[in-house]
Amino acid sequence: MTEREKMLAGEWYNAQDEELLMLRRKARLTMQALNATRDDDCAERTSLLQQLLPNAGSKLWIEPPFYCDYGEHIALGNNVFFNFNCVVLDVAWVTIGNNVLFGPNVQLYTATHPLDAQLRCSGLEAGHPITIGNDCWIGGSVIINPGITVGERSVIGAGSVVTKDIPADVFAAGNPCKVIRYLHSSP
């Protein structure tokens, strides 16, 4: 099993593997070009986003700067918006539904490191997928930790740290993030 296969399977893997280094370098060069585009150069941005995020649906809008590890492990539905300075560490799959909004400085972390110091010093790491359902709004400066699922139509309040799954149709906030109230289907 290759290090990339281990990574995507959620097993401990060596992040310094040559294939993974090459894929991250390719993504970083594309991000550097994306983040340097002018606001009026939509065609260039679109082309670079298609290169960086080949599993994206239609009507994707990202306000640069944007950062990720690989890009190709991010599956985006239609009509997804990332505000300025978002980070997606996609060492495991990040799956985002349709009509999802991300405030500025949102960070999605699939990557994790061993708690055991000796194992951590070996350089091994792992990843656990993140899933965000349709019609969600993730407020500014939210951090979503590895292995989390956010249910459809839920709203995560600004500054929250999501350490446990969030059900559908709720407003959740805080550190750690918890359900504050259930949402109605009408505005």
TrEMBL record:
Cited InterPro entries: Hexapep, Hexapep_transf_CS, LacA-like, Mac_dom, Trimer_LpxA-like_sf
Pfam family, one: Mac
Superkingdom, taxonomy of origin: Bacteria
Broad EC category: transferase
Catalytic activity, EC: 2.3.1.-
PROSITE patterns xref list: HEXAPEP_TRANSFERASES
Domain Maltose/galactoside acetyltransferase: 4-58
Keywords of this entry: Acyltransferase, Repeat, Transferase
Xref: PANTHER family: ACETYLTRANSFERASE YJL218W-RELATED, GALACTOSIDE O-ACETYLTRANSFERASE
Protein family according to the UniProt entry: Belongs to the transferase hexapeptide repeat family.
Protein name listed in UniProt: Acetyltransferase
Lineage of the organism: Bacteria, Pseudomonadati, Pseudomonadota, Gammaproteobacteria, Oceanospirillales
